[in-house]
Amino acid sequence: MSIENLKTDGNDVNYEVQRFLEFSLGEEDYAIPLLSVREVISVPETTPIPKAPPHFLGIMNLRGQVISVVDLRTKLKIKPKENNHEESVIIVDINGMNLGIVVDSINKVLAFTADDVNDVPEIESQVNAEYIRGVYRKEDALTVLLDVAKVLDLKDMKALGGMKAAA
Amino acid sequence: MEDFERELKEDFLEESLQLLEDSEQAFLALENDKDSTDLLDQIFRLAHNLKGTSRAVGFGEVAEFTHEMENLILKLKTGEMEVTDFVVTVLLECNDHITHMIHTLKDDIEATFDSTEIIAKIVGVLSGDITGEDSAAAEVHAAEESFSEEAFDEVEEVTPAVEEFDSVPSADMFEESSSFEDDFAAALDTEEAPAMVEDAGDNDVEISASALESLRELGLEDDSILKELELKTAPVEKLDEGLTIKKGEDIVAQTKPEIPAEVSGPMAEVTEIKKKPAAPAPAANKPSAPVKKKSEDESIRVALSRVEKLNNVVGELVILQTVLDQRRFTAIHDGLANKSIAQLGKLSKEIQEISMSLRMVPLKATLQKMNRIVRDTSKTLNKNVKLHLVGEDTEIDKTVLENLSDPLVHIVRNAVDHGLESTEGRIKAGKSEVGNVEIKAFHEGNNLVIQINDDGGGIDHNVIRAKAIEKGLINPNKEIPAHEMIQYIFHPGFSTKEQVTEVSGRGVGMDVVKTNIEGMSGSIEVRTEMGKGSTFKVCLPLTMAIIDGMVVRVGSEKYIIPLSQVHESLKPSKEIINSITGFGECLNLRGEVLPLFNIGKTLSRKMDDGESSDKIAIIIHNSSFNYAVLVDDILHQQQVVIKKLGDEIRSRKGFMGSSILGDGKPSFILDLNELYSGSLKKNNNSIKENVARVA
After folding, report:
1. By the 8 A CB rule, do B154 and B380 touch?
2. Is B375 a domain residue?
3. Which of A22, A140, B67, B132 has the least CB density, counted as fewest CB within 10 Å?
4. Is B274 on the interface with A (CB under 8 A)?
5. B446 and B326 in one domain?
């Protein structure tokens, strides 16, 4: 994924412009690579999934395709905005897997080069650090660049499925 | 390697498998009709074709080997050598070798091969050093070896000498068998049932061009998916000089006036675009009855995932149409609009039927493979067997077909091995020397039925009974009717190796066959008549994409239970519900004690308040145990289209998939057997104790 190339290791400066979709979770701003976004829709009706973790909101019908909807706010323990009429669902494509994520609002598309991205500040007890791929700073505003697959432990889940198949 | 080169190679590998299947059939036909010059011509053409193309795309080793094989065929063709059973065996081995190479190349395009052993054999045959008299038996053993490698190990009486024959075909077969074992494990592990559906994602289905045309007729041509499907017709155009496509155009042109006004707009556009200099349509080219040419000319290869996509969209179309239809008389007061909606309804139903039919493929290829199985097995056993195929054109869902092949091979091989008597036995019994095995496929309601009949000695229910008692499967004092007794051959634990020979018959791994077939929501039963033969009847749903479902209510939510799992449903009275401390509730139903599970508790969902006797009990008959599941209500029964679940949910137990119900919301399809497999195992012993206590 393009996010992997965000920071180049060597001295070469990467001038390629990356595009991210910025959205809000509570009062905070987050962004994911635009290329992983399939579409944005209003919050649909969902069918709850029995025995699923609380951030799994349910499954929805996207024009005949059944897709799981997750609430990143629950997962990241962020308090949703109150009286919010801008709640949306972003349909993302993570390694071929479609997923809907609920966000408080869609803000804008960011375009920047890898140079504009700062590393995650080293703070102790930073539990979320693993799925933060960087921080984009523009003047005083900070946008956290998220790795959705990591947030949701999708790799673990896939590995689990794979193990079962092999067994 | 450059992309286009790789693409060329991959195309070749796909194509060559078809060629190899054709040549295998031709070899088998040649064995029965040794003087047929037509067949030899055909075989020579196939081999030559294979040699030429493989060289052209740069598979030198395949080409070289095919060249050797061609030399042999040429000698047969010119009459310098005679066609004998042995020569055919060698040719079949060559065929297997090439198939093996192709399969290996598919996985690793750079793979290399060692063909010296088999080439030496060909050279030996050519020079007349090997005539087959001395080695024929060994050959057959070598072939047999490959069978015993497979998970089906019923033919274990093969002599140990076969170990020496580490010949190529056996390696090839072994590869097949290992993949089979995987499938097999998957099928055993019922949790993987959805995965089986998902596996199909990479596959192609052959779609008859006429079905595509029908879709186009229905005005779906502006759909991007259809365009994608259509794109794929390009290679076909190359192959048969555009015959199919042109035919299609004519159909479109002819049917145009019948298309309702709303859709004729885009249709006209497309018709125009497509009006290339089309060949004049032959007189017989009516839309309803396209000329039947060679079947492969009329089909195109399309990725199954595309067909699934189409099915999804069409399913949605039907749902939207239903919503429109429901509002038709309340919200819409325009006569023409109302009429159009009604027409639209008919059309969308028809589109749905067609799009579903795209997944259907004829059984032919799978059934023809049985020719080879019967040939090889009967040669090993020195039996004279004739295979009759009936209903090869019967169609079935692609995914079902893929999982059908292995159980079928097992049943057929068993029929030849254990079902039919030896030649002497047949003569003694006053039967013809040639044993007959018949595979008959036909549709029955919403099912496909495959019957495998043999005219052998039948299965002795007394022997089965004795074995079942010995194994502790049944109570010695219990009377069981003969036809029920025989079904015990499918019982897990009934089959072990030493029993095969003792029980003069079946029972080896038949439980696996049964599990496989049940994994596809199918069923199998056996009927037998002593001295006359046996019949295995396999019933399969026509498609795994649609199932009959029972929509139940759990609290405020709806869940779907496959009707195939439901044995009966009832409202339990207070009297038949027994509560057992430490175990839970039981249902005492007509003398049978069933554990009673509360689905709300299992799924951690809120159910209606009230006693168990206020709810509905669904009785499930499982191959190992029967049980009852409580739901709040049964809403209705309907056919549901199974939708895959994402990876994030698929690993969860008990969900077969989901489906979108009439209200547009998705519901889960439950696999109750999987959901309760854990509790059943755990409780199995305690249930038995409790049964004794309650009864």
Report:
1. no
2. no
3. A140
4. no
5. no
> Is pLDDT of B284 > 60?
no
Are both B267 and B180 inside the same structural domain? no
Residues 6+ apart with CB under 8 A from B317: B348, B351, B352
B568 and B519 in a common domain? no
Q: In what order do the strands lie in the sheet with B385-390?
A: B385-390, B435-444, B447-454, B533-541, B523-529
Claim to verify: residue B537 and residue B550 sit in the same structural domain:
no
Architecture of the structural domain at A2-166: Beta Barrel (2.40)
Question: Tens digits of per-residue pLDDT, B380-405?
Answer: 888 888 889 998 888 888 888 888 88
Q: What residue has token string 């080409």?
A: B63
Whole domain around residue B502: which residue ranges? 385-541
- pLDDT at res. B225: 53
Minimal CA separation from B68 to chain A, in Å: 41
Q: Among B45-49, B121-125, B331-335, B681-685, where is mean pLDDT lowest?
A: B681-685
The residue behind tokens 């007509």 is B590
Residues B396, B415: Cα–Cα separation, whole Å: 23
CA distance A75 to chain B (A): 15
Residue B212 CB contacts under 8 Å (≥ 6 apart), including other chains:
B226, B229, B230, B233, B248, B300, B358
Establish if B89 touches chain A: CB-CB under 8 angstroms: no
Q: Quick one: average pLDDT of B27-41?
A: 81
Best mutation target among B192, B647, B663, B668 (most A Cβ atoms within 10 Å) is B647
Q: Which residues contact residue B7 at a Cβ distance below 8 angstroms, ignoring those fewer than 6 apart?
A: none
Domain ranges of chain A: 2-166
Mean pLDDT for all residues in chain B: 72
Together in a domain, B329 and B427: no
pLDDT at A99 over 70: yes
Measured distance CA(B107)–CA(B408) in Å, rounded:
26
Q: Does A48 touch chain B (CB under 8 A)?
A: yes
Any CB–CB contact under 8 A between B188 and chain A? no
Residue A161 in contact with partner chain B when CB distance is under 8 A = yes
| Its pTM surpasses 0.80 | no
Q: Which of A101-105, B330-334, B435-439 has the lowest mean pLDDT?
A: B330-334
Q: What is the mean pLDDT of residues B67-81?
A: 81
Q: Round to whole Å and give the CA distance between B532 and B543.
A: 34
CATH of the domain at B520: 3.30.565.10
Residues B85 and B131 in one domain: yes
Q: Which residues contact B262 (CB under 8 A, 6 or more apart)?
A: B219, B340, B344
In a mutational test of the B interface, the residue from A65, A67, A97 whose CB has the highest number of chain B CBs within 10 Å is A65
Q: What is the CATH number of the domain that holds B123?
A: 1.20.120.160
| Residue type at B224 in one-letter notation | S
Q: Which two tokens stand for residue B369?
A: 């493979």
Q: Residue B365 falls within a domain, yes or no?
A: no
Task: Say whether both B347 and B295 belong to one domain.
Answer: yes
Q: Residue B29 burial (CB < 10 Å; 0-12/13-18/19+)?
A: middle
Condensed to tens digits (0 to 9), the pLDDT of residues A118-129 reads: 776 666 555 556
In whole angstroms, give the CA distance from residue B156 to residue B496. Answer: 12
Mean of pLDDT values over B406-419: 85
The ipTM, to two decimals, is 0.76
Q: Does the residue B262 lie in any domain?
A: yes
Residue A31 has pLDDT above 90, yes or no: yes
What are the tokens at A162?
């794979």
Percent of chain B with pLDDT over 70: 69
Q: For chain B, how many residues are written?
A: 695
B150 has pLDDT over 70: no
Q: pLDDT band at B624, cuts 50/70/90?
A: low
* pLDDT above 90: residue B219: no
